[in-house]
Design goal:
This protein is α+β, with helices and mostly antiparallel strands. It has helices at about 70-80, 110, 120, 135-145, 200-210, 250-255, 300-310, 325-330, 340-355, 400-410, and strands at about 1-5, 25-35, 40-45, 125, 130, 145-155, 170-175, 185-190, 195-200, 220-230, 235-245, 360-365, 370-375, 380.
């Protein structure tokens, strides 16, 4: 097996470890192998995703073609240094918290450029951030936190647990400081609180101190499963790190100094060089790191098409409604004749009241040989069927007989009849005063 190193030529290849595409122009390392079907092939990896214990970058084919600054970054990575971004602390520095002497953070270039929260800017005096109001800081953060950056993380050990993750699903990180195998262990649960696995050990060692920090100003992490990143052994995810703008440079420098986490997309630490001209790490200042919501839809048009597709699947085939039974149930109770669309409306309302079908956006599927129920919106599944959703909204235009349809629904509904045919049954109508 021969190892080689080069700059990515197309951006189509995926990293063998994290499962994400290697951007065009980024330094990549590959192992040449022989496939019985395809012949000689190369499996590519991000340098940050490799385990360098038995590898030497200088011995890789193509090492001399790598630019000196990128060679230095890779050598730092191999030796356990800063790797892709240099100059950061290798240990987490706890953020301020109530009851301790206030130590203001050094203002980041983003805060100085005005990217911070208005409350933060108002609290700054002579270039120094004043101590926040600890009683309200967590509530204020909901509107002022910014996205520091996104990194790839791996969920491993998935075959040992019963929980599953799906593409686009959000996962919850749960610290396990008393884990007998790793004090930095971070358990990963799906939306049904079922354990899926653990964050890869080397990555957990970086994230755990951030999660354990007792400060109300500590960063928070949102994890989403990557497209095409799931298999029975591991799950590739994107971890988005958020927090107060004043601490973004400190947090990013710590994260990247580890050498095991890689910033995704057009993001960098202010003033730090990137590895490779095409990485998207352009050396821009941190004011380019703004609040970005984790939405996979890339445009309004695509979003509308996605919503239309979901709602199209909810449409009822009106020709299948049993209007004959409805008219039979209304015999002797109805003085005004019903138009065809009104008969369909009454039949639809009755079918909704008696519905035993799955709620909207749910479907029954088979996963690992087991029947489960999958939600298209949350991208999660569960073993028990969700309770049926009864009722609905009649939204006909004005003058098409919504009132008449509602009265007919009450008259034809078997549940409005009192037991034994006596009095006492009825329907409650609620209307505006």
């Amino acid at each position: 097996m021969t190892w080689c190193i080069e700059y990515s030529k197309s951006g189509r290849a995926k990293c063998r470890n994290c499962g994400q595409k290697i951007e065009n122009g980024v330094v990549r390392c590959g192992k040449e192998e022989f496939s019985p079907m395809y012949g000689p092939v190369t499996g590519w990896n991000h340098p940050e995703c490799l385990t360098w214990r038995s590898l030497s970058p200088q011995s890789m084919i193509g090492w001399r073609s790598i630019r000196p600054e990128d060679q230095t970054a890779i050598l730092n990575l191999v030796s356990g240094g800063a790797g892709r971004q240099s100059g950061g602390p290798t240990r987490w520095v706890p953020l301020p918290r109530p009851g301790q002497p206030w130590v203001p953070p050094p203002l980041s270039s983003a805060a100085m450029a005005g990217a911070g929260s208005s409350s933060s800017q108002e609290s700054q005096h002579d270039g120094v951030m004043a101590e926040p109001n600890w009683a309200t800081v967590e509530e204020e953060r909901q509107d002022t936190d910014v996205l520091y950056g996104k990194v790839n993380v791996l969920v491993v050990g998935c075959r040992y647990y019963g929980g599953l993750l799906h593409e686009g699903e959000y996962a919850e990180l749960v610290r396990e400081p008393r884990n007998q195998y790793d004090r930095n262990a971070i358990r990963v649960d799906n939306m049904m609180a079922q354990q899926v696995g653990h964050i890869k050990k080397e990555q957990a060692a970086v994230l755990a101190p951030m999660i354990d920090d007792a400060s109300p100003l500590k960063p928070w992490i949102e994890v989403e499963v990557n497209e095409g990143g799931t298999n029975m052994f591991q799950v590739s995810c994107t971890a988005s790190i958020y927090g107060p703008v004043e601490y973004q440079e400190q947090v990013l420098r710590y994260v990247m100094a580890s050498g095991v986490l890689r910033l995704k997309g057009n993001q960098s630490i202010p003033g730090s060089p990137g590895m490779g001209s095409g990485t998207g790490v352009t050396g821009t200042n941190s004011s380019n790191l703004s609040v970005v919501r984790s939405v996979k839809i890339s445009s309004a048009e695509a979003s509308q098409k996605s919503l239309d597709k979901l709602y199209d699947e909810l449409k009822t085939d009106l020709s299948q409604l049993d209007t004959a039974s409805v008219m039979k149930a209304l015999q002797g109770k109805l003085l005004s004749p019903l138009f065809p669309h009104q008969q369909q409306g009454v039949a639809w309302m009755l079918s909704r009241e008696a519905s035993l079908s799955l709620p909207p956006f749910w479907s029954q599927v088979t996963e690992a040989g087991t029947t489960v129920y999958y939600n298209q919106v949350t991208k999660s599944s569960q073993s028990t069927a969700p309770a049926p959703v009864k009722g609905g909204l009649v939204c006909d235009d004005m003058g098409l007989g919504k009132t008449l349809q509602t009265l007919c629904c009450a008259a034809a509904d078997q549940f409005t009849q009192a037991p034994g045919g006596g009095g006492g049954g009825g329907t409650l109508f609620c209307g505006p005063n």
